[in-house]
Target: Long-chain-fatty-acid--CoA ligase
Amino acid sequence: MMNTQLTLRLLIERAEKYFPKKEVVTRKASGIFRYMYADFGKRARRLASALQTLGVQRGDRVATFAWNQHRHLEAYFAIPCIGSVLHTINIRLSSEHIAYIINHAEDKVLMIDEDLIPLIEKVKDQIPTVKAFVIMTDNPELPETALHPVYSYEQLLEAGDPGFQFRSDIDENEAAGMCYTSATTGNPKGVVYSHRGIYLHTMCMGLADTIAYSENDTVMPVVPMFHANAWGIPFAAVMFGSKLVLPGAGPTPQILLELIQSEKITAAAGVPTIWTGVLQVLEKQPYDVSSLRAVLCGGSAAPRGLIKAYEEKFGIPFIHAYGMTETAPVASVSRLRSNHQHLPVDRLLDIRSLQGMLVPGLEMRVVGQNGDVNWNGQEMGEVWLRGPWVADEYYNDERSKETFIDGWYHSGDVATIDEEGYLKLVDRTKDLVKSGGEWISSVDLENALMAHPKVFEATVIAVPHPKWDERPVAFVALKPDFKDQVEKQELLDYLAGQFAKWWVPDDIVFLDEIPKTSVGKFLKRSLREQYKDHLIRM
Amino acid sequence: MMNTQLTLRLLIERAEKYFPKKEVVTRKASGIFRYMYADFGKRARRLASALQTLGVQRGDRVATFAWNQHRHLEAYFAIPCIGSVLHTINIRLSSEHIAYIINHAEDKVLMIDEDLIPLIEKVKDQIPTVKAFVIMTDNPELPETALHPVYSYEQLLEAGDPGFQFRSDIDENEAAGMCYTSATTGNPKGVVYSHRGIYLHTMCMGLADTIAYSENDTVMPVVPMFHANAWGIPFAAVMFGSKLVLPGAGPTPQILLELIQSEKITAAAGVPTIWTGVLQVLEKQPYDVSSLRAVLCGGSAAPRGLIKAYEEKFGIPFIHAYGMTETAPVASVSRLRSNHQHLPVDRLLDIRSLQGMLVPGLEMRVVGQNGDVNWNGQEMGEVWLRGPWVADEYYNDERSKETFIDGWYHSGDVATIDEEGYLKLVDRTKDLVKSGGEWISSVDLENALMAHPKVFEATVIAVPHPKWDERPVAFVALKPDFKDQVEKQELLDYLAGQFAKWWVPDDIVFLDEIPKTSVGKFLKRSLREQYKDHLIRM
Model:
């Protein structure tokens, strides 16, 4: 059959040809900006030609440092479609890590949202590979900046060629993008995405049994475009011709609800903390959210209580997904199967709370201390993955060999798998609590705590213990209405009603807020460090 | 990213792991036979090991000569998953062509349904490459046959290994299957399907905006498994875990309706003549067809009247698709888009009658006498296609160079394309009527005739004419109730109300039945030959 290379050119050309009038909507501080895929295509072509004028060559890394907005979308396609590599930098990293990854990736050009310039100025003297800073702004004048040399994105586009031809000679295995993921210790690790990997992941996201992205959808990635390709949503929207809504800089729950209501979003995607925040507003203030056919939630496990609230109070189907930067990112999705349709609602919620079934295209093993675990929902093992959108190494990184072993990606996630093949994340290998030789799942305890009506957020860590090696300690942030009004014992009793006695944490620490990573996950590392002597001192 | 090869092993292993209890149902003369994907997997593994015992090696062609039934499904996977090539022979070909393609493909083993043995016995002395005949039968005793050497499928399986490991070292570009397509003149032409091509076509069929095959579906391919992989449905069912219903030998419309009713089919697929036949029965006799979410129709253009009857009388959504053996086969699908939802019903039917939008993954040009046609629904051009499931040649065939030119497959189909990119087949390049230097679409005339309430089937061909070079002549089979009760002039007047005067056929010939090809398409070639002097004689 024909040797057609699976490259991103095919995606953008499909949007231009078949969906020229579909809208891309960006929320800005100044209001809503909209244009059509026809405009998007021309501007991406202008950008591609402008980047070549700036000296960007095949294989060069071009980085973005930006929110979810239309220029970022243009970069998503223009850069790979000239054979260069889109490096999306997480704006929430420390200056130290930002400098590290720009140097490690050897970024040649850096495209920056105007309001984020100060974060790059902090590291400007440490990033010698960058030959040009391109400022993405609506202002006709460039702002004062210590960066040099700076270019105006819009001026570059004005000089660019709207009829520029994307490369047709790109091999599907060439790099299209890259993204760094935080390491437990040390510097972030880079994952390179090939055209083929992104293309196949995109196809997978359009399957009826995964997310079913469609021309009929209006999709809103709340998950940042600097985080694992915004779960591939920009690529899927362009391939399938969905209307795309980009929520811009720092969207609040109110802003998201207004967009859902006014743009009639059908499928939105974000981490659990986003949906927790949105729920809090929605419970107090009415918004029309009836257009939503799916709320996609991943990044960390969504508590059952959260899923239940969306489904039962607001009738919004919740799709729980699992994945990571190394898997581009979607690896499993929890959808109901035909044999579930007559189950009681409570059981359906249980299933929706799982990480779900491996998506078509990937292979998985769950490997415990004695090899592959039995599919009984009980035995715990580490999740191993392989497939065409799974990384095979960290970019130029000695640490690759700890994670990519004999053709399998070892995720570090601990899970069980039930009779039907539904995955349930139990913990990170490093977050399991090993108490007296037995494993305790911190995630199960967290989910139980977060289902408590007075609890806003909770996390559980392993703390060294003189007798049991490790014991669980819980950290809880209460809902504002219950602040300072809950005793530890109330929560401990509540847990004792659900778990074996030895699973119940040795202590509960109330915090105003659980510290989080740059992508909104609970930052267990800092708690572990801070509380390492907690049980010794007690 | 990982260098995972896209092979059929991944499909069958997914069904075994995730859908072991989903059913595969075969209708036999003796009744319904059902087993589960778990059984299917074990039997496919037994077959794979048995074929190796028979001496089948990597790259060898193993042919099937069979109806849609579960053993054929096992062959669909066992053969490619040991690196051999599944050659599905059209049982409706002439003996001459059957012998030709077995020799041309150099088939080593031939797997034959018991009732079809006589067709192979006719050519037994002309097919020296075949080293073994495997008889697929429920009978414990092999029938008397002149074939030699013969093996019992079930005895081979009994000796086979249910734990046999499929090859994991197959390159995705290796051949997985092949199918011959009839040529206008001369011998059939072979198309080879790679693992990659089938895999990507299968993914495409699961997209929400194409056919959306899903675990929730019960699918029934009426289209034969010896014809373009039954439009890829067996592969899709296995990949996505759909319940699969195989209608067995020579299913009548009554049999199909009984299966739809009893097995609760959600998605059935066949050529227009199948759905015309089913409709005739359904109009007289009630069946519960409420489970159907889609009737997929392709192979030749479905008349608007047929689509209208299904949708309006029975509320069955009709999905009109377009493709061919050379495209594995689906190239376009007519689904409604979000901007169509407020259109009047009549306009929606118009859209559903089109061949629809190119599916994601392929590229298309429609090329007329002056290059690519404008997208205005008026200009006619030939459909050119390229993509990962489009053939790049005919197998060992000099005629390849007439069809595969500069990286494009020239389909020989003439079409227009409208502002939104919806394809409308107008004719075959060779079936266009060239009257006085202008083109007349035989398909438009056929569709108009078939929408007439008294007409059952109609076809239109170009007949040589002394003055105009060619003029259209129509052939009409009336519905039984109207037989011998319609005058030519009634139909000519009917057409004159819809077309320019010079489009109206010069004659209408009533036939009891329109002659058809082995795959149910109208056999224009024989009519052209038989009526070549019709207008000269008149």
Remarks:
- Chain B touches chain A through 52 residues (CB under 8 Å).
- The longest strand of chain B covers residues 455-465.
